[in-house]
Amino acid sequence: MTRSLKDWRRAQACRRAAWGSAFREARRQQQHWKTDRERLRAEYRAARTAGRLTGRGTGPAPEDPGPPASGFSLMPWLLMGMGAISNLFHGETPNPWIGGLGLLTFNSLYIYVAIRSFVKETRQAASTRVALALMGLVTCGLALAYGDSWLLFFPLLGLATGAALRGPHLRAVGTGVAVLAGTVSAVHDGWDGLTIAYATWISTMVTAAILSLSEAVRELRAAREELARRAVEEERLRFSRDLHDLLGHTLSVIVVKSEAARRLAPRDMDAALAQVTDIEAVGRQALTEIREAVTGYREGSLAGELDRARSALTAAGVEPSVTRSGPPPDPQSAALLGWVVREAVTNVVRHSGATRCLITVTAAPERIRLTVTDDGHGRDGRQDTDGGDRGAPGCGTGLTGLRERLAAAGGSLTAGSGPHGGFTVTAELPVESPVAPPVAASPGSPAGPAPELPAPTSAKADANRGSGGDAGRDRDGDRSGNGHRNRDGVGDGDGDGDEHRDRDRDSIGGGSAVAATSSAAAGPGGTVPSVAVGPSLGA
């Protein structure tokens, strides 16, 4: 009696120590997570302050382009008409009232055309073209009537023409204005009129070139700012999708395993501690994935996600069935399909209420197809094919984000109720890389195609076959045979059950993807073949 009491006290002390160690480790991981979160926030604030997200850095600032060009930049050229104004005021111009009226009309039309030439809509308006034509008539009339310094109004006409007619017809119109200027100038100055014609043509072309370059620079600057803004939005969208895909799946598994540990704690402390160990492994893996996602080095793995899906479904009491056929996909397709498996299995665990989940991967020479089907509630209370995450109160980000990712890679994703109930998620991707060569046969093995691997079966089915149906799963989830796994995903028997738990822990700790394997032969005493489910979802 005394020895039994001592053993009981020693066992209680060991369990308390194990629980204390597990919770201390959980608090330490939580503190690490808080530290990483604060560090990321600080880096984000520093990036925004430094202008990395808005295109403005803290180094030497680029030259300030200043305000955009306007019609006032052409106003100083009106000083070319000062000679005509001087002649007008000194009485050297006949009919000064007509000359003054013509000068006022020319200046008014010049200012009107110059101001409207710096806005595309007003530059192409009919009123601007009419004003330019009237300006040409006034210039020709004043030059023919007075000559001398009044001929300098032709280069001003060229400036206005180059500013208002930037387009494919500029060369023809500019040449015509130059010929008109030379012809009118030749009436008064003979061959010296060629100088006025040349000045008019140069002013037209140079003005158009400078203003076109200025407008192109403004458009380029606006396009660069728009690209920077879109890059920031796309990066935020990518980060939100990765965060959902990483944490949504992992937290669902943590919740399921926490519930299993709570149910097992009153009757089987060792099984509950095994669940706590799984939770710790899932949390560690989640931290690693978050760090990898932040640094941009994370790549998905279809095989790893399938193994984690088996473990998560089994822990949730859902019987998994995985079937693969065809050559392995290329790394990029495998990464995308791994995300689909993760999101679909998360929805099955969280929302479906299913008892069986079938995952099928079929690779063809041109396309690879992934199908995840469950026998749960179907579309009741969940989103349809156009929605997002199932069970979300609104349009979720899970399936929607995956649909966008697959569409960018040339694939497609559909989700909805199956023909016989339940819910089905189907993803298709084109095969871009060449088909992988077949694995060489081992020495001594017969030639021929490699046999197709059988679909993994649940531990319950193997146990029923091995024990002839005598061992079943009871309501409390205890193990009555030698090879069963209850709905909590923990073996509660002796002998084989402890061996399986140790094997699962080793798989979780090492992070290896363990496929569904069975012992070569039944053990003594009618022990059924055992099935080692893949590592925990967080592995």
TrEMBL record:
Organism annotation: Streptomyces humidus
Biased composition (Basic and acidic residues): 370-389, 471-490, 498-507
GO molecular function: phosphorelay sensor kinase activity; protein dimerization activity
Bias type Gly residues, positions: 390-399
InterPro entries, per database record: HATPase_C_sf, HATPase_dom, His_kinase_dom, Sensor_HK_TwoCompSys, Sig_transdc_His_kin_sub3_dim/P
Name of the protein this chain belongs to: Histidine kinase domain-containing protein
Region listing for Disordered, in residue ranges: 370-400, 434-539
Entry coiled-coil feature ranges: 210-237
Pfam families in alphabetical order: HATPase_c, HisKA_3
